[in-house]
Description:
The protein is α/β, with parallel strands linked by helices. Helix content is 35%, strand content 21%.
Amino acid sequence: MTRKIIFFVYPEFELLDLSGPCSAFNLVNELYGGHYEFSVVSATGGAILDRAGLSIATEKLGKVGDYDTVVAVGGPTAHVYGLNALTKAFFAESALRGMRVVSVCNGAFLLAAAGLLDGRRATTHWRYAGLLQSHYPKVLVDIDRIFIKQGNIWTAAGLTAGIDLALMLIEDDFGSSVAKCVAKDWWFTTAVWAVNRNFRPSWTSRQLPVG
């Protein structure tokens, strides 16, 4: 089974929000017999600079063909980045078609701007939680979770929480045994899941590490 994931970026995005989840998915390809395909898209296409000035080649939104999951990455400009009508429609239509629509860190602002978080619980980086709530009062912001799944809408908290969320998506796609193997490769422990008390992956141990 092939799963295609597209990452949506914009000027000054956070590279870790893209590279962390992508690396987790790619381990499935390299070591565990799964098959993910990746594309990086933007509203304009072409080269996009991340917050450190690194240039990332992107395809123009709407020209990537079929996909299963779209990931809105975070970054220091996410809360002020203005989604144009085409981009809002892309996120909204992806959700309506049943695709998984995912945000990492304050990429949640992009989903909120598209109206996808109205009436839903969502999380984001703690530093931006108050701003998300004030800008989008219909969103039920919960900063006590590493990630939250509400139907086909998934949100993750700050930075490395995107890798936690990637593990859940891997479990959703290829099962708990594959997700557990990738987690071991990443040196994850069950302590990280304990924070997300109401949504523990099926493959994690019930026992927390001692010491």
